[in-house]
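Narrative of activities, Objective 1.

The group set out to show that a structural description can be obtained from nothing but a protein's sequence at a throughput compatible with the screening campaign. Below is one input-output pair from the validation batch, recorded exactly as produced.
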Amino acid sequence: MFKIALRIVGSIQIILGLAYLLAPDAFLLKMGHSLPAADLLYPLGMLSSRFLAYGIGLWIISTDPEKHILWIRLMAFIQLIDLAVGIFYTATDVVPLSLSAFPMFNAIWIGLLFAIWKPASSAALNATRP
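Output recorded for this entry:
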């Protein structure tokens, strides 16, 4: 089950990375954000590489999550930062709740899942098999 969660979150990261890399203006407008200044497309492109790398990484580590618990916990930390930024910019009326609610909800469930849920060890899984 944990492997599936890693792949779902990895897929979300890859989709975000591709959107920010290939069509950042259209993606942000579709979500309801303002069109960014042209010079912001450069840091958005750099951000896309992180989404893509972490997404691919989550797919790779899903084959043996127990060996990669640090990377799973780091994703929880990323989600904590995402949530804090969302709360800050929503509380200061920079971003309306209508734009921040869904990403903050995702930050909560992904963050909690990756912070608390421990992947089953290979030894434990083999012990339960007949």
